[in-house]
């Protein structure tokens, strides 16, 4: 009993169990506390402070967050420019594919690199999405196939980290850019 409220605590985590009708408000508070960060950060905040909220509810909640939905809409606007690709290894895009739901033992991520001209793809199994691990594969790829002129990734922390930039700095002809890599299936306004 705390004040006039009955509160049940989870025996395992020692966190208060959130009543069904308060789940939305609780997630909302946690989501605001982490500055409208994505699912993982919001989930970490919820998990560290409360019990009785399931992981998948976070996803549902995030779809209802007005500020996050607006931000997404702005992000996905086509820029109105067509990408010009002249030959192999002019522009290579990288992204991470989340395989945490179907891990192969300790490998939970796939680093995917794709040449925009030839559509040739490289894939590397990763144990984590730590920047150092990503960087070591980027380094291997540059050594084996040569560095691209433009190396493009999204704004994920694993790509914006200094260690990736350092790898790119070893090849002065390579420019690293961040921004949403345009998916080939996405229609592009010309
Ligand atoms: Zn939000």
TrEMBL record:
Tell me where in this chain the Integrase catalytic domain is found. 74-190
Q: Name one GO molecular function term.
A: nucleic acid binding
Tell me, which GO biological process terms does this entry list? DNA integration
**Short name of any one Pfam family annotated for the protein:** rve
Q: Which organism is it from?
A: Littorina saxatilis
The record ties this protein, via SUPFAM superfamilies, to: Ribonuclease H-like
Q: What is this protein called?
A: Integrase catalytic domain-containing protein
């Amino acid at each position: 009993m705390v004040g006039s409220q009955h509160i049940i605590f989870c025996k395992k985590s020692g966190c208060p169990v959130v009543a069904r009708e308060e789940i939305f408000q609780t997630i909302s508070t946690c989501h605001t506390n982490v500055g409208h960060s994505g699912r993982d950060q919001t989930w970490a905040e919820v998990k560290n402070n409360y019990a009785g909220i399931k992981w998948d509810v976070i996803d549902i909640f995030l779809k209802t967050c007005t500020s996050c939905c607006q931000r997404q809409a702005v992000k996905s606007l086509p820029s109105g420019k067509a990408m010009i690709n002249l030959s192999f290894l002019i522009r290579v895009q990288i992204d991470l594919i989340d395989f945490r739901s179907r891990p192969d033992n300790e490998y939970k991520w796939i680093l995917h690199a794709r040449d925009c001209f030839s559509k040739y793809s490289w894939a590397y199994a990763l144990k984590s999405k730590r920047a150092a691990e990503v960087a070591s594969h980027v380094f291997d790829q540059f050594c084996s196939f040569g560095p691209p002129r433009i190396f493009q990734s999204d704004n994920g922390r694993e790509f914006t980290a200094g260690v990736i930039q350092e790898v790119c700095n070893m090849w002065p002809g390579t420019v690293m850019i961040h921004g949403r890599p345009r998916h080939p299936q996405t229609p592009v306004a010309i």
